[in-house]
């Protein structure tokens, strides 16, 4: 996460929104930080504690589910269309739908109030729904499609001609051994 700050991948807009240009691994880090902040804040809310409260199993499982959801999100078009913070919120929302660890609606409302956002929770929920939709409708390529894509990539990288010449060398060596024997 420190690299995000050091490499100026964080931009703060005049409306207060924070934009982060991040990779999949950095998104997972961001999601972990957001989840840890929120979970630790909720666990201690209304109580005076001298020591941090450890997460229970449900919180940890929810966090792992959210990280898996980030992996699914990263292979769709969503990272090109939505800021990383919204991607992380969508992953956290999906994980919470599965595990029911927190009151997500209240969390979004409180977050928007704290940030004095000019955007409504309805707008944010529409964006999160669009991210969820892109994950649900994404079709992973078949094995046949993957082989075709791999061949195309190899030709773009110039590897196919090199591989073909190796095959020809092997065939010619194999033929010369047959004719000699």
UniProtKB/TrEMBL annotation:
Annotated InterPro entries: Cyclin-like_sf (IPR036915), Cyclin_C_2 (IPR031658)
Residue ranges, annotated region (Disordered): 160-181
Pfam family, one: Cyclin_C_2
Residue span, Cyclin C-terminal domain: 61-131
Keywords: Cyclin
Organism from which the protein derives: Eucalyptus grandis
Gene3D superfamilies xref list: Cyclin-like (1.10.472.10)
Secretion signal, residue range per the UniProt entry: none
Protein name: Cyclin C-terminal domain-containing protein
Segments of skewed composition (Basic residues): 168-181
Superkingdom of origin organism: Eukaryota
């Amino acid at each position: 996460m420190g690299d995000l700050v050091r490499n100026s991948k964080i931009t703060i807009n005049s409306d207060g929104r924070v934009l982060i240009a991040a990779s999949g691994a950095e998104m997972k880090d961001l999601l972990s930080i957001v989840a840890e902040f929120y979970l630790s804040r909720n666990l201690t809310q209304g109580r005076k504690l001298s020591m941090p409260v450890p997460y229970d199993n449900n919180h940890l499982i929810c966090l792992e589910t959210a990280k898996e959801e980030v992996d699914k999100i990263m292979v769709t078009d969503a990272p090109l269309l939505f800021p990383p913070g919204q991607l992380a919120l969508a992953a956290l929302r999906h994980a919470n739908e599965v595990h029911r660890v927190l009151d997500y609606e209240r969390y979004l409302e409180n977050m928007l109030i704290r940030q004095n956002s000019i955007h409504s929770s309805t707008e944010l929920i529409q964006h999160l729904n669009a991210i969820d939709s892109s994950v649900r409708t994404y079709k992973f390529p078949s094995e046949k499609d993957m082989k075709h894509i791999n061949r195309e990539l190899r030709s773009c990288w110039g590897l196919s001609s090199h591989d073909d010449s190796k095959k020809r060398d092997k065939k010619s060596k194999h033929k010369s051994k047959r004719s000699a024997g």
